[in-house]
Fold this protein.
Amino acid sequence: GENVEQHPSTLSVQEGDSAVIKCTYSDSASNYFPWYKQELGKRPQLIIDIRSNVGEKKDQRIAVTLNKTAKHFSLHITETQPEDSAVYFCAAKGSNYKLTFGKGTLLTVNP
Amino acid sequence: NAGVMQNPRHLVRRRGQEARLRCSPMKGHSHVYWYRQLPEEGLKFMVYLQKENIIDESGMPKERFSAEFPKEGPSILRIQQVVRGDSAAYFCASSFAPGTGGSYEQYFGPGTRLTVT
């Protein structure tokens, strides 16, 4: 089955800096890669996603890149703000429609 | 525009009791997924259902756990004879039929936090 590895497990940045979170996946048939943000005690919220036929997607301060050959994808957050502090999860969807999640990255943005 | 609804939000059960968790999908969504999240861990897939049909239950423990999504009413995740190791947050997510219009997005409910004492 699919296996998703996520790094780093914790990330601390200064407000205004950029943050990058990386994930690798194992199933070459995976074709959909969402990113979720989860604040403490809250539900995971979909913040951006990318399909396998696209290499990069951007939404304001958030961007995701995908390298199908290397089977890795990354989340980039620019001009970080304290409200960006949360746990971020990457996921991959294989041919069976279920999402396999990484273990999460705790992002702390220091004012 | 109601999102995914789950109830109860918190549930306390003694060992050996039954826990019933309910999930109402987002309007227009016909597919429901259940995930379990242990403290400081990621989300683990449990089961994927559409109305009156279990599509994939490969993540469900073989014993004590069952799920259904009837023609009318919410999806229910049932845990019989709960043990302390069942304590976790249980999230459901819903989607359109995957691939419909190219859509694969899953939207999550607020979760049910189960505590077994």
Summary: DSSP finds no helices and eleven strands in chain B. The mean pLDDT of chain B is 92. The two ends of chain B are 36 Å apart (CA to CA). The CA atoms of residues 93 and 108 of chain B lie 4 Å apart.
